[in-house]
Amino acid sequence: MNTSEIQALNDRHVINTYGTRKLALTRGEGVILWDADGREYLDFFSGIAVCNLGHAHPGVTRAVTEQAAKLLHVSNLYYIEPQVKLAEQLSAHSFADRWFFCNSGAEANEAAIKLARRYWAQQGTPKPEIISAKESFHGRTLGAISATGQPKYHEGFEALVPGFHYVPYNDIEVLAATITPATGAIMLEPVQGEGGVRVPDEDYLKQVRALCDAHGLLLILDEVQTGLGRTGTLFAHEQADITPDIMCLAKALANGVPMGAMGCTERAAAGFTVGSHASTFGGNPLSSAAALATLEALTEDGFLDGVRKTAVLFHAALDAFAQRHPKSVVEVRGKGLMVGVEFQEPVMPLIQKLQEAGIICGPAGPKVLRFLPPLIIESEHIDRLLSVLESCVGELGW
Ligand SMILES: *Cc1c(COP(=O)(O)O)cnc(C)c1O
Predict the structure, then answer these.
(1) Which of 66, 108, 134, 302 could be cross-linked to 260 through a Cys-Cys bond (beta carbons 3.0 to 4.6 Å apart)?
(2) Is 101 assigned a catalytic role?
(3) Do residues 349 and 391 share a domain?
(4) Residues 309 and 391 placed together within one structural domain of the fold
(5) Are residues 21 and 87 in the same domain?
(6) Which has the closest alpha carbon to 274: 57, 97, 76, 38?
(7) pLDDT digit string (tens) for 211-270?
(8) Are residues 26 and 119 in the same domain?
């Protein structure tokens, strides 16, 4: 099918929650994508921070094809070998002692919210309330939008799940003042993604951790976007030199096979007992095998060093771009290869122009251009992006 045939079928049969996209990508290899009409693109979005190892990664492809030929699914009524190996490996590379597997970021956050509530209920001192941040994004299920501090995601879906309080991100005083005896957990993204690629002050997460310790609260970090190497370390919280009690993962976990996970300490894990939570597909043989191969590649010696080096080049290139366009660029910000460029103008026309010129990237709110390239990009790709960006900005007269 060509692009217009795909579009016609979409417009007739798919519920229109995503709007018009004008593009159907049908094949990928590394950092390159091809559309249904055979045009080539350079990927600076990774399917929203999912394909961190790039497209058609040989190790992941091999793991998926081998597992698909062997066993796709049996349910969690049985032990699953790839799942237990994955849990072991995730624990070896993080603070978390125990894992619950699901299929998406929203579900990982649902699991975290349920675990936090049930943890306190189990203690005999229910503390059902959770403090999260304004401009946050935690997913689209009812619990996850209730945790999300952006009214646009709530509109028309009320009544929301009660018990959430939103505080300004990166403001420790307001956060401290919002804690009550009913507060059981604080839930944050280490870097806000969807809400505009917002990086908190150096010591913010450390102060939040200290606040949680002082009040005995559970700290939930939503690393769905920041996790799995995106910010230059396997998990973003490593750079703040803290550990949470609960961490949510999804997006890049299986490099494109749908998968979510919630990891937690032994103490927090006591909140869930037999029968308290479940998922039919969660951690099934296919997604677990893909995640195992993904984690193996991400933790290979030197891989994350390479990501950090590339990130330095990328930030320097974008900073130089910003200096050439002081009137149109407000700020370049981000961590590792999670980067936002805030413009004075809405960025959708720029994203469209970049797409026409063969670059795939996306927004983070109306005025922020968001780059989430595969972590395997090289300096030549950054050079190509910058030269295309320069000419697109020029065409817009910015
Ligand atoms: C994408 C995202 C989610 C939601 O993940 P889904 O897989 O779409 O449910 C949750 N939290 C953060 C930080 C995200 O970036």
Answers:
(1) 108
(2) no
(3) yes
(4) yes
(5) no
(6) 76
(7) 999 999 999 999 999 999 999 999 999 999 999 999 999 999 999 999 999 999 999 999
(8) no
Using most ligand atoms within 8 A of CB, pick from 194, 247, 335 the residue to mutate for ligand 1. Answer: 194
CB under 6 Å to ligand 1: residues? 104-106, 109, 137-139, 189, 193-194, 222, 224-225, 250-251
* Own/partner pairs, 58-61, CB within 8 angstroms, 24+ separation: 59/293, 59/294, 59/296, 59/297, 60/254, 60/255, 60/256, 60/257, 60/290, 60/293, 60/294, 60/297
Q: What is the DSSP letter of 158?
A: P
SS3 state of residue 303: helix
- Residue 195 C-alpha to ligand 1 middle, in angstroms? 12
Residues in CB range of 61: below 8 A, 6 or more apart: none
Phi-psi region of 182 (alpha: psi -120 to 50; beta: other; left: phi over 0): alpha
**Residue 184's pLDDT is what?**
98
pLDDT tens per residue across span 349-398: 999 999 999 999 999 999 999 999 999 999 999 999 999 999 999 999 99
**Positive or negative: CA dihedral 10, 14, 20, 21:** negative
Q: Is the pLDDT of residue 20 over 90?
A: no
Q: Report the separation in Å between the CA atom of 365 and the middle of ligand 1, taken as the mean of its atom positions.
A: 15
Mark which of 246, 270, 298 sits at the end of a domain.
298
Q: Is 137 a catalytic residue?
A: yes
Residues 320 and 379 both lie in one domain: yes
pLDDT class of 21 with cuts at 50, 70, 90:
confident
Q: How far is the CA of 222 from the centre of ligand 1 (A)?
A: 8
**315-329 pLDDT per residue, tens:** 999 999 999 999 999
Number of structural domains found in the chain = 2
Which residue among 44, 45, 100, 137 is the active-site one? 137
Catalytic residue among 100, 235, 251, 371: 251
Instruction: Indicate whether 288 and 307 sit together in one domain.
Output: no
Print the domain residue range for 121: 59-298
Q: Which of 138, 191, 237 to mutate to test the pocket of ligand 1 (most atoms within 8 A of CB)?
A: 138
Give 334 Cα–ligand 1 centroid separation in angstroms. 17
Mean pLDDT, the chain, integer: 98
- Give yes or no: residues 46 and 110 share one domain: no
Residues 80 and 100 in one domain: yes
How far is the C-alpha of 2 from the C-alpha of 243, rounded, in Å? 48
For residue 394, how far is its CA from the centre of ligand 1 (angstroms)? 34
Between CA 249 and CA 247 the distance in angstroms is: 7
Catalytic: 251? yes
Is a pLDDT exceeding 90 seen at residue 165? yes
Instruction: Look up the CATH number of the domain holding residue 83.
Output: 3.40.640.10
